[in-house]
Amino acid sequence: MLSITSQYLARFRQLDAGAGTPVLLPVTGAQRRFALVRAMDPAGRPDLVPMFFAFPRGTVDPVRLAAAANRLAARHPVLRARPTVLRGTPALRLEQPQVPVVREVCAPGEDAAAVLRRALTRWTPEGAPLRLFLVPDGPEGTEEVLAVVLDHSACDGQSLARLVAELGDAYEEGTGADGPSPAEVAAELDAYRDAVLRQLDAEERAGAPEAMAYWGARLRTVGERAPAVRPAPLSPGAPPSGSATLRLPAAPDGVPFPELLNACRAAAAVLYGAGHVVPLGYPWGGRPAGAAPVLGCFLNTVVFPADTGDRPTASGTAAAWWDDLDHAGTPFDAVVHAARAAGSGWRGGLDGMLTVDDARRQPPLRLGGVNGREIHVDGRAVRGPFAVSVTQGTELRLRMVWDRAVLPDGTAESAFTALADAVRTPAPTAG
User: Fold this and answer.
1) What does pTM read for this prediction?
2) How far apart are CA 148 and CA 394, in angstroms?
3) Given a cut of 70, is residue 139 above it in pLDDT?
4) Which residues on neighbouring strands pair with residue 375, listed in sequence order?
5) Are 398 and 388 in contact (CB under 8 A)?
């Protein structure tokens, strides 16, 4: 039987790409997942990856910034592509670069965070995958905030680092600089297509019957436990998400990933009760071997079945996690299929997400000789009941956000306490 990836490739190759038709590109398993999640969302919300940078007021020239961003989009196919579905087959359709730079204004009593939260809720999936927003931080503020926002289907961590560096370089060239030559555009398009095909080839191998059997057995007892959206609306003006943050001294090698999984398991036990196996997700992967470092999304979402019963040992979680990594390339939609074929009622929703970033590898955004100070904007809409992000830098920052329409603040804050306690006091090792 053909794997899900094999079936997708067969359908994609049958799409008409003759003379006069738009250039179509195949999508990775990660991009298929984002399209599926958006289709399942009642409001059709996309997954967004925003970066926020504070600059001294008057530093950023919007015209110069737009010229720089559009030169980048001309070079990188994924920044000028639009998702489309032809005869039931998802693909990317190339268009001309159209990166908007939107200047927002604060209403009386508003700050930049409130304006940006509202701007992101207006995001329409049909537009450019890269958009920039510039907001003064209050009427009397001395700073302005630049939001660089991408549709998640167009980026991963490796993409963000390259994008930030190249956007700063393009800004330095000014408004009159030439865009990439036709040869450069063609070479980048070939490199992108090659990277995606290599990724799909790897996903095809990772969807072999042995992998499907592994994930079927691993996830057979998984079931979503998050409550439905509460009918009681939030108070007017209340942000749609809550958050909590803990800062700890940074260990030389960071916190071992299995310990972070155990910490998320402790939070899930508070949120959903004991005695369940809930699906938690985490991104994993990178560019396939031999692929150029193109901008795009090459991170799979791996599912971790979190048992909210007895506290697990560190060694037990680590052993299971290492086994999962041997099968981490199986695309998400194939994993869902394997779980359902094994008898799980799981439909692909995740009760929590865990991401880990190394801030030491992220270059600053430098515009006009000034380094932007990266900041966080709290209260943004989040995908899923709760998400944990761990940032490793000069200190360890542990952050949890939650959907306030699903989880009450008090319960979520108790879950964060359990999460933080588990990080401070790792699970014991077996024996």
Assistant:
1) 0.92
2) 24
3) no
4) 52
5) yes
How crowded is residue 247: how many other Cβ atoms within 10 Å of its Cβ? Answer: 11
- Strand 101-103 relative to strand 24-25: parallel, antiparallel, unpaired? unpaired
Task: List the one residue out of 287, 140, 320, 282 whose CA is nearest residue 201.
Answer: 287
Strand partners, 75: none
Place of tokens 């997400």: 353
- Token pair, residue 290, equals 């031999």
CA distances from 361 to 104, 134, 149, 253, 391 (A): 30, 25, 19, 14, 11
Q: Which of 33-42, 123-132, 199-208, 209-218 has the lowest mean pLDDT?
A: 33-42
Which residues 6+ apart lie within 8 Å of 416 measured at CB?
A: 244, 246, 267, 400
Burial class (CB within 10 angstroms; exposed 0-12, middle 13-18, buried 19+) of 202: buried
Residue 431's pLDDT band, with cuts at 50, 70 and 90, is: very low
Torsion angles phi and psi, residue 90, rounded to 5: -70, 145
Residue 371, both tokens: 């380094």
Q: For 390-402, what is the HEC assignment?
A: EEECCEEEEEEEE
Tokens of 419: 């999460």
131 phi and psi, to 5 degrees? -140, 145
* Tokens (6 digits) for 259: 């310990």
CA dist., res. 426 & res. 254, Å (int): 13
Task: Supply the DSSP string of 376-431, one letter for each residue.
Answer: --TT---SSSEEEEEEESSEEEEEEEEETTTS-HHHHHHHHHHHHHHHHSPPPPP-
pLDDT (tens digit per residue) in 142-183: 899 999 999 999 999 889 999 999 999 999 999 989 999 999
Element (H, E) at 12: helix 4-13
Number of H helices, E strands in the chain: 11, 16
